[in-house]
Write a structure and sequence with these properties.
Elements: H1 4-12, H2 19-22, H3 24-29, H4 50-68, H5 70-79, H6 83-86, H7 92-99, H8 124-135, H9 143-172, H10 181-184, H11 187-192, H12 198-213, H13 217-230, H14 238-248, H15 251-275, H16 277-289, H17 297-304, H18 311-335, H19 342-356, H20 365-375, H21 379-404, H22 414-440, H23 446-449, E1 486-489, E2 495-498
Antiparallel strand pairs: 1-2
Helix pairs in contact: 4-9, 7-9, 8-13, 9-12, 12-13, 12-20, 13-15, 14-15, 14-18, 14-19, 15-16, 18-19, 19-20, 19-22, 21-22
C-alpha cells in the first residue's frame, strides 16, 4: 500500500503530462534537443521549471519575429511601398504613429486626426496602450527615426504581453504545462505579433482563462472586461460560458463573471464615452461601415461577382451566419455526451467569428493560438493549422506587392490570393472539426484520455450536469479509455490519481 504522504503528493502535485511520451510529433521534434524526456527526470525541481522555460522560449521566438521585420526597419516602411510587402515585414505600428496623430501630440478620442475630421478607430484600452508608447517615444529627430523608435517601444511592450500569455497558458492546466510550448513556438504567432496591438487583448484573455481555471469568477470577469475594452472578440467567451454553466447549474459563478466583465468594461469606457462620445464611438461605427476587406470569404465572393453585395447586406448576412454558428455551439454544448471543456467551446466561438467576419487581418490568428493550444493540444493538428496560417501570411503580402507594384506586377495575382484565403479557411475549419470530434467522442480528447475532466473549467471541472438535451440525457459513457491510474473526482472536481494496492 502507498503511504499517506505518497497519496498526498499525487493529489496535490500531480506529475505533469509529458508531450514527448504521448505525442508522436513532439517526440520526433524533441530529437533536435536530445530526445524525449526520461522517466527519471526530475520535472520542476530545478530552476528550469516549465513556466520559466516556456516564457523564455516565447520571448526568444518573439525576438526572432522582430528580426524578421528588419528589412522594413532598415527602410522599407518609409522608402518603398511594395518592398515592405515583398519582404513580408509590414506593420501598422510605425505608419499609425504619424497617421493617427501621435507624432503631433494629439489625444486619442478627443482630438481629430490631422484635420481629417476623424478619430482613432481602436477600442479605448488599445488607444491607451498606443498613447503610453507615444509618451515613451522621443519627439526629436526625423519622423522616420521617431516611427522606428515607436515600433521598438511597442514591440517591447508587446513582448511583455507575449510573456504573460506564455505564463498564463502554462499555469492554466496544472498537469499539462508543456502544452503552452505550442503557443511559444507557433510560427504565425512570431510573424504577426508586431503587426498591430492585438497581443494586449490576447494577454488579458489568457489571464482571464487562468483565473477561471482557478475558480476565481470575479477576477475572470474583470480581466475579460478589460480584454474586451482592448478588442471586441473576448466578449464572445461569455456565450460558451453561459451554456456550460447552464448545463452544470453554476448560475452564481456565471453571474459573478458577467458583473465583473461589465463593471471593468464600463470603468475603462465610461469616462471617454461621456467626455468624448463621438471619438469613443468611432471604433463601433467604423466596424459597421467598413466594407468587405482582406482575408474573408466575402472578399472571394465579391471579387468573383459581377455585382458584389452592399456593405449593409454583408453586415446582415455575416451577423446571421455568426448567430447560426453560436446556436450550433450552444446545441453542441447541451447535447454532447459529456459537457465540453471550456477551452474547446471558447476556441470554436472565436473561430466562428473569424470565419464569418467580413475581414481577416493576418494578426487575428493571435486570438486563436492560445485557445487552440488549450482546446486541442496535439502537435500534428496544431502544426497543420499553423502551416495554413503561414501560407496566408505570405499570400496577403505577396498580393499587396502585386497590387502596389504598378505595371511590374511583382507578387501574387488575385486568383493566387484567393487560393491563400481558401487555405486559411480550410486550415481553421480543420482544427474546428477535430475539436468538435473530440467533444462528440470524448475518448479521442487527449486531455480527457489522461483522466482529467475540464482543467480549464474552474468550478465546472468535475461538476454534475443538471440540464442536458438529446443524447446527453442518456446514461453517459465512460469518461475516458486509457491505460494508467484510476481516477476519482474530488469535491471541487479536480482529479486525483490513486495507486492500486
Amino acid at each position: 500500500m502507498p503511504s499517506a504522504e505518497t497519496t498526498r503528493v499525487n493529489v496535490d502535485e500531480p506529475e505533469p503530462v509529458r508531450p514527448t511520451k504521448e505525442d508522436e510529433v513532439a517526440a520526433t521534434g524533441s530529437e533536435l534537443i536530445g530526445g524525449p524526456i526520461g522517466r527519471r527526470a526530475l520535472l520542476g525541481t530545478s530552476w528550469w521549471t516549465p513556466v520559466r522555460v516556456i516564457a523564455l522560449v516565447a520571448i526568444g521566438v518573439f525576438a526572432l519575429g522582430m528580426v524578421q521585420k528588419l528589412p522594413c526597419y532598415d527602410g522599407a516602411w518609409f522608402f518603398g511601398a511594395s518592398s515592405q510587402y515583398t519582404h513580408a515585414c509590414y506593420s501598422d505600428i510605425p505608419h499609425l504613429y504619424q497617421g493617427r496623430g501621435f507624432a503631433d501630440g494629439l489625444v486619442p478620442y478627443f482630438d481629430k486626426i490631422n484635420g481629417d475630421m476623424e478619430y482613432l478607430e481602436y477600442p479605448v484600452l488599445t488607444g491607451v496602450f498606443m498613447e503610453v508608447a507615444a509618451w515613451l517615444t522621443p519627439g526629436s529627430g526625423s519622423i522616420q527615426g521617431q516611427e522606428k523608435i515607436y515600433w521598438m517601444v511597442n514591440s517591447g511592450m508587446l513582448m511583455a504581453c507575449a510573456a504573460v500569455i506564455a505564463v498564463c497558458a502554462t499555469r492554466t492546466h496544472r498537469r499539462r504545462p508543456w502544452d503552452a510550448l505550442l503557443i511559444a513556438l507557433a510560427p504565425a504567432f512570431a510573424l504577426t505579433a508586431t503587426i498591430n496591438w492585438d497581443l494586449l487583448a490576447v494577454a488579458l484573455t489568457a489571464a482571464a482563462m487562468l483565473m477561471w481555471s482557478r475558480g476565481r469568477a470575479l477576477a475572470f470577469g474583470v480581466l475579460l472586461g478589460l480584454a474586451t475594452a482592448a478588442k471586441l472578440y473576448p466578449v464572445l467567451l461569455l456565450g460558451p460560458l453561459l451554456v456550460l454553466c447552464w448545463r452544470a447549474g453554476r448560475w452564481r459563478e456565471f453571474g459573478t463573471a458577467l458583473l465583473g466583465a461589465g463593471g471593468s468594461w464600463l470603468t475603462v469606457n465610461l469616462p471617454v464615452m461621456l467626455l468624448a462620445p463621438e471619438g469613443w464611438s468611432k471604433f463601433y461605427t467604423f466596424s459597421q461601415e467598413r466594407g468587405v476587406d482582406f482575408g474573408s470569404f466575402w472578399l472571394v465572393l465579391s471579387q468573383r461577382m459581377e455585382t458584389p453585395f452592399a456593405t449593409e447586406t454583408v453586415n446582415t448576412l455575416a451577423t446571421v451566419l455568426m448567430l447560426l454558428a453560436s446556436v450550433g455551439v450552444a446545441g453542441l454544448a447541451l447535447t454532447a455526451p459529456r459537457r465540453p471543456r471550456f477551452a474547446q467551446l471558447a476556441f470554436l466561438i472565436v473561430a466562428a467569428f473569424i470565419l464569418t467576419n467580413k475581414v481577416y487581418s493576418p494578426q487575428y490568428v493571435l486570438w486563436l493560438v492560445p485557445l487552440a493550444a488549450l482546446a486541442r493540444p496535439k502537435w500534428r493538428d496544431f502544426l497543420i493549422w499553423q502551416a495554413c496560417e503561414v501560407a496566408y501570411f505570405l499570400g496577403i503580402w505577396m498580393y499587396l506587392a502585386y497590387t502596389s507594384s504598378g505595371d511590374a506586377h511583382k507578387g501574387l495575382p488575385t486568383d493566387g490570393y484567393q487560393l491563400a484565403i481558401v487555405v486559411h479557411l480550410l486550415g481553421t475549419l480543420y482544427l474546428c472539426a477535430v475539436v468538435v470530434r473530440d467533444i462528440l467522442m470524448p475518448e479521442r480528447d487527449v486531455v480527457r484520455r489522461a483522466g482529467d475532466d475540464d482543467p480549464t473549467g474552474g468550478v465546472l471541472d468535475g461538476a454534475e450536469d443538471v440540464f442536458v438535451l438529446g443524447a446527453a440525457a442518456r446514461p453517459p459513457r465512460h469518461a475516458a479509455h486509457y491505460e494508467g491510474p484510476s481516477v476519482e473526482w474530488g469535491s471541487r472536481g479536480t482529479s486525483a490519481a490513486r495507486s492500486s494496492p
